[in-house]
Amino acid sequence: MLDLILPAGAAWAQVLDDRDAPALLPQEAALTRDMAPGRLREFTTVRGCARQALARLGEPPGPILPGPRGEPRWPAGVVGSMTHCAGYRAAAVARRSELPTLGIDAEPHRALDPGVLTAVSLPQERTRLAALRLRSPGIHWDRLLFSVKESVFKAWYPLTSRPLGFEEADVSLFPDGRWHAHLRVLGPAPRGFAGRWLSTGPLLLTATAEPL
Ligand SMILES: CC(C)(COP(=O)(O)OP(=O)(O)OC[C@H]1O[C@@H](n2cnc3c(N)ncnc32)[C@H](O)[C@@H]1OP(=O)(O)O)[C@@H](O)C(=O)NCCC(=O)NCCS
User: Fold this and answer.
1) What's the N-to-C CA distance of the chain in angstroms?
2) Which protein residue's CA is at the shortest distance from atom 36 of ligand 1?
3) How far is it, in rounded angstroms, from Cα 105 to Cα 17?
4) In whole angstroms, what is the distance from residue 170 CA to residue 152 CA?
5) What domains are there in the chain, each with its CATH number?
6) Ligand 1 pocket, 104 CB below 6 A?
7) How many Å lie between the centroid of ligand 1 and the Cα of residue 84?
8) Ligand 1 centre from 120 Cα, in Å?
């Protein structure tokens, strides 16, 4: 599924449940003492996906530890991203020489709580969502917008080590499976990201590897 929205050069792995997840490596397990069972399961399973994806790049197995803001620390010369939601865990990685950054996100394909939508979107985004809803009512465009912003943040943060507010990305979604995010930030940072989205069964998937 992810391959449909990832560019060439990315290696990826995904699973739909936590059965058969390989055990954590000791450095990872040392971080899990206070995790609730559900969090421990997703943390464990997605690292299995990440090691599988890294093996496809020819990388040996190693711990994938979080940095100070939760960002995964990949082996030298590798970029990547991980996501988990109910019924889905996935990781994507690439050589930095092939792709500058990666951000992926998965969300359940259902409406976003209206309060959440207001908190994460700009007025002009909500106007565009209303037009998309009329054109293609089968897609929960509000949830898709949220997922795009999560993918943007996961691609942005490793490049900049800077926070990014939901109001700092102005996202345009296109029915043909593309999206653009224009960033309202100053300084030597990407001006935006372009990516792709996919609706598949109960899931919405988004990905970017393309800073603008
Ligand atoms: C970090 C965040 C993006 C994760 O997204 P999510 O939809 O809640 O959760 P997902 O399961 O899809 O992704 C979780 C994974 O994201 C990755 N992640 C966490 N922080 C990250 C960061 N700073 N940079 C890159 N990736 C990060 C981790 O791999 C994490 O999994 P792990 O903890 O098991 O290693 C989200 O919780 C967050 O903090 N959002 C606020 C910032 C934001 O989105 N701003 C909008 C900008 S337009």
Assistant:
1) 25
2) 150
3) 16
4) 11
5) 2-100 (3.90.470.20), 105-211 (3.90.470)
6) no
7) 10
8) 14
Give bridge partners of residue 195 from the DSSP assignment.
179, 208
Q: Specify the pairing of strand 78-85 against strand 88-95.
A: antiparallel
| Class of residue 182 by CB neighbours under 10 A (exposed 0-12, middle 13-18, buried 19+) | middle
State whether the beta carbon of 68 lies less than 6 angstroms from ligand 1. no
Residue corresponding to tokens 């990832």: 6
Q: Give me ligand 1 centre to Cα 135, in Å.
A: 30
**Tens of pLDDT along the chain (212 residues)?**
899 999 999 999 999 999 999 999 999 999 999 999 999 999 999 999 999 999 999 999 999 999 999 999 999 999 999 999 999 999 999 999 999 999 999 999 999 999 999 999 999 999 999 999 999 999 999 999 999 999 999 999 999 999 999 999 999 999 999 999 999 998 888 999 999 999 999 999 999 999 99
Q: Is there an atom of ligand 1 within 6 Å of 149 CB?
A: yes
Report the alpha-carbon distance of residue 161 to residue 92 in Å, rounded.
Answer: 20
The model's pTM: 0.98
Tokens of 49: 């996906």
Question: How much distance in Å is there from the Cα of 43 to the middle of ligand 1?
Answer: 12
Edge-first strand listing for the sheet containing 10-15:
10-15, 88-95, 78-85
